[in-house]
Specification:
about 110 residues
Length: about 110
């Protein structure tokens, strides 16, 4: 399974609405941060395993798509961090982790 990059507020708004019926995991990723690079590797490892197929997986580059990143933080009432993973269901934050807590094992424990 692979993640899809979202770059617009409209894409985010649709995902947020759809989360009422299908969960979505958002990885907020900084392309300039080594910790974020590690988190992206962990995300990819989780998706190469046996990920929960009832969830959509997306990525937001926090520098390149700052307005989307900010909108996510505002809509979910979650303090922005990077890297940060957020599981959204029923139009609200269900779980979040940041920095070194973004691991394949942590994702599997929450999402599977």
């Amino acid at each position: 399974m692979e993640w899809k990059e979202i770059t617009t507020a409209d894409e985010w708004a649709k995902l947020l609405e759809q989360s009422a019926e299908r969960g979505v995991v958002v990885l907020k990723h900084s392309t300039t941060c080594p910790v974020s690079s590690n988190a992206l590797n962990e995300y990819d490892q989780y998706l190469q395993g046996n990920p929960n197929s009832a969830i959509d997986y997306v990525l937001v580059k926090v520098i390149e798509s700052r307005p989307v990143s900010n909108q996510i933080a505002e809509d979910l009432d979650v303090k922005h961090e990077s890297p940060q993973i957020i599981y959204v269901k029923d139009k609200q934050k269900y779980w979040t982790a940041s920095h070194w807590a973004v691991t394949t094992e942590h994702m599997a424990a929450v999402l599977d």
